[in-house]
Automatic annotation (TrEMBL):
Domain TACO1/YebC-like second and third: 79-235
Compartment(s) of residence: Cytoplasm
Keyword Plastid among record annotations: no
Transmembrane segments: none
PANTHER family, per database record: TRANSLATIONAL ACTIVATOR OF CYTOCHROME C OXIDASE 1 (PTHR12532)
Organism from which the protein derives: Cytobacillus solani
Major localization class: cytoplasm
Protein name as catalogued: Probable transcriptional regulatory protein AN957_16660
Amino acid sequence: MGRKWNNIKEKKAAKDANTSRIYAKFGREIYVVARQGEPDPEANQALKFTLERAKTYNVPKHIIDRAIEKAKGGSDENYDELRYEGFGPNGSMVIVDALTNNVNRTAADVRAAFGKNGGNMGVSGSVAYMFDATAVIGLEGKTADEVLEILMEADVDVRDIIEEDESVIVYADPDQFHAVQEAFKNAGITEFTVAEQTMLAQNDVTLSEDAQAKFEKMIDALEDLEDVQQVYHNVDLGE
């Protein structure tokens, strides 16, 4: 698979740290998942997962607490979960996940971000079939063989285990996310470099220098939108 998840995460975190945008996005997501179930991560697996992700991005505790308290307080602020699919230059494909309290605004903003940067939105299902929902969990201090042994002893099946720089990255089916983490925690591993549920492209494409520059500008425009939570694509951007 070789997506170099740590490099991707570091670039994203460095970019987001300049605006604190990532904290706002996590605050919204935590609020939504806390409202959908219990505002207690031990009773709400979706919330527990979101908090695990937030931890890997060093989201401050006060952001998390404020979002959970807002959910507990019975706020009537409602968000819709939306997915958009589209195309960039030379066969590139993009999936955009959003949380919004104004569907028309978000659809217009996403369409504009595509259109102004050489892309176009597609219909539902036009892109997603080329991606696989995947859990990605990374850790340091272990070899791939040691990680495999831990998972085998816990009887947890995964898709792949890759050594990447100084980390080991585990790819698994989404429904195995918590089982993988529990196996690691039972082995005394509680810190993770990556803890994501993502959409992984079945095949990556490589763009020319000019096309890649245009594509990256489009991705930046999409990620800059307030309502957009995640952007997935099939372009190999290198390191």
